[in-house]
């Protein structure tokens, strides 16, 4: 599978994917000058930058995005800090082949600054979600979730560090599972696994008790 990683921030999840040898054929950033671009360059991966300024209309942006993905013959997409909302046309073109990582236990705390939202709310548990992308924002069938405990006295910075550590462990594992067809999105919109639940559980073993 030829993966595109869609980014817009520091690129720590992109680095995690590249470090695990995910075949990333393209990085698309919606912002110029971000850390993720430097990481792509460090690993010799081509980068395309599509900004809101160039394409203020969502549909124009996405049309250009789809053309770019086609030009690089992309099969699957991993969103990692890409903060633009994809249109139905793009989701339909790649349905079941687009995943997103989000730093909370969705459906709690979607949107921006999810770690801080959860922290300020005072939750005792939060975590990380990887899901197939649909037309909504941080919605779509959930593939994997890993909880992270928020002990009394934990600082926001400590929680951010713990969440990012889980993200960097989990995302490459989910990509590997998709590559090996262990998991897929069925026609009826549900998630199907072809490995037994115990194996799925041990597959992300060690991440449960962070
Ligand atoms: C990650 O924490 C990711 O979960 C989050 O953006 C960060 C990107 O960091 N995504 C969202 O909040 C999506 N709604 P990175 O650039 O270091 O990978």
TrEMBL record:
The lineage of its organism: Bacteria, Bacillati, Bacillota, Clostridia, Eubacteriales. GO terms for molecular function: phosphoribosylglycinamide formyltransferase activity. Keywords: Purine biosynthesis, Transferase. The keyword Nucleotide-binding does not apply. N(1)-(5-phospho-beta-D-ribosyl)glycinamide binds at residues 11-13. (6R)-10-formyltetrahydrofolate binds at residues 58, 100. InterPro entries: Formyl_transf_N, Formyl_transf_N_sf, GART. Catalyzes the transfer of a formyl group from 10-formyltetrahydrofolate to 5-phospho-ribosyl-glycinamide (GAR), producing 5-phospho-ribosyl-N-formylglycinamide (FGAR) and tetrahydrofolate. Residues 1-175 form the Formyl transferase N-terminal domain. The record marks 138 as: Raises pKa of active site His. It comes from Sulfobacillus benefaciens. It catalyses: N(1)-(5-phospho-beta-D-ribosyl)glycinamide + (6R)-10-formyltetrahydrofolate = N(2)-formyl-N(1)-(5-phospho-beta-D-ribosyl)glycinamide + (6S)-5,6,7,8-tetrahydrofolate + H(+). This is Phosphoribosylglycinamide formyltransferase. It is an enzyme of class 2 (transferase). Coiled coil: none annotated. The active site is at residue 102. Gene3D superfamilies: Formyl transferase, N-terminal domain.
């Amino acid at each position: 599978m030829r993966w595109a990683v869609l980014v817009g921030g520091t690129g720590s999840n992109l680095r995690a994917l590249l470090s695990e040898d995910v075949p990333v054929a393209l990085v698309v950033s919606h912002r110029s000058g971000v850390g993720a671009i430097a990481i792509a360059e460090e690993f010799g991966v081509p980068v395309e930058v599509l900004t809101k300024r160039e394409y203020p209309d969502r549909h124009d942006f996405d049309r250009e995005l789809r053309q770019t993905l086609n030009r690089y013959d992309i099969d699957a997409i991993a969103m990692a800090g890409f903060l633009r909302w994809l249109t139905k046309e793009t989701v339909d073109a790649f349905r079941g082949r687009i995943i997103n990582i989000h730093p909370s236990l969705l459906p709690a705390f979607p949107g921006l600054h999810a770690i801080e939202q959860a922290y300020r709310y005072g939750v005792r548990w939060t975590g990380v979600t990887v899901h197939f992308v649909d037309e909504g924002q941080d919605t779509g069938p959930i593939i994997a979730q890993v909880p992270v405990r928020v002990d009394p006295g934990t600082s926001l910075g400590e929680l951010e560090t713990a969440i990012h550590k889980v993200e960097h462990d989990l995302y490459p594992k989910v990509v590997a599972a998709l590559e090996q067809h262990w998991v897929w999105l069925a026609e009826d919109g549900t998630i199907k696994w072809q490995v037994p639940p115990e194996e799925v559980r041990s597959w992300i073993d060690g991440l449960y008790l962070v």
